[in-house]
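Ops channel
N.P.: pipeline sanity check, posting one input/output pair.
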């Protein structure tokens, strides 16, 4: 995705917090060892954990200490994200993710569906343990939004959207989980909710734009323009006016759009410089293409 050495240096700043999230995620236990081992191996596979990383860096940059509730919140976010990936692998008929066998390949589609649902139940338990109705409502609305985004994408295949429609879908599909994480954290810390929402929304949209640009290259070792082939038209092809032959021009304009959202993220800070703010700015720089 980007320079691993630079990113690993950033991860080292928050390694204790990320380790706590990992420990909490892996604390489940069913009566079926094969299933438990497979699920825990899935979470131990190399992952950027970008949702937790930016949340930890952002709120530590504001001077907050990471507490147990914040760890539970980030564990829930990571679990929800991974549940959606397991379900995505069924839809995409994927056999490998993060270098290991997917659940639909290792078991079958039935077990993959149940595995994703099981993870959602674990995430729900962690969210309920925060004992905050407002946070529970935020995540209920977030999961609804993510599903609506996918439904919208399905029914609009092979239709060229406007860039505004694309941004709205990106908010629903991708930015909404970043937003839920930041808005919930702002409740836990009594932090300015508007600032948290602005950063998370801009970063989430930037994350999706970047991913869509990379879908037209082989930088991430993923299938090239498979979204386009399946009738899912993203920023590069929208700017290319639906013509794959003009994709180079579309990619350059999409990069400009990405930079606009990353610039918006850089402007949203309320404290003086510290190592966490600098690390977060480095993450934003790594997202540039």
């Amino acid at each position: 995705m980007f320079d691993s050495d630079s990113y690993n240096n950033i991860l080292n700043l928050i390694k204790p917090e990320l380790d706590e999230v990992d420990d909490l995620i892996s604390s489940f236990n069913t009566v079926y060892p094969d299933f438990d081992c497979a699920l825990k191996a899935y979470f131990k596979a190399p992952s950027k954990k970008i949702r937790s990383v930016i949340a930890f860096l952002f709120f530590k940059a504001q001077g907050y200490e990471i507490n147990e509730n914040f760890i539970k919140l980030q564990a829930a976010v990571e679990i929800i994200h991974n549940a959606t990936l397991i379900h995505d692998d069924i839809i995409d008929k994927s056999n490998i993710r993060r270098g290991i066998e997917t659940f639909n390949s290792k078991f079958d589609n039935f077990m993959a569906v149940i595995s994703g649902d099981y993870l959602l139940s674990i995430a729900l338990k962690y969210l309920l343990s925060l004992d905050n109705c407002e946070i529970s409502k935020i995540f209920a609305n977030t999961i609804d939004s993510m599903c609506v985004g996918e439904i919208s994408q399905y029914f609009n295949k092979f239709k060229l959207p406007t860039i505004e429609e694309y941004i709205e879908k990106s908010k629903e599909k991708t930015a909404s989980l970043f937003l839920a994480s930041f808005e919930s954290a702002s409740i836990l810390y009594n932090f300015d909710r508007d600032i948290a929402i602005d950063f998370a929304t801009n970063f989430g949209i930037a994350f999706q734009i970047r991913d869509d640009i990379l879908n037209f290259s082989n930088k991430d070792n993923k299938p090239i323009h498979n979204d386009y082939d399946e009738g899912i038209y993203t920023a590069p092809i929208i700017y290319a006016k639906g013509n794959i032959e003009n994709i180079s021009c579309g990619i350059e304009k999409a990069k400009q759009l990405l930079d606009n959202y990353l610039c918006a993220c850089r402007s949203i800070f309320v404290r003086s410089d510290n190592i966490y703010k600098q690390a977060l700015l480095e993450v934003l720089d790594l997202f540039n293409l």
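N.P.: looks fine end to end. The chain has one domain: 4-286.
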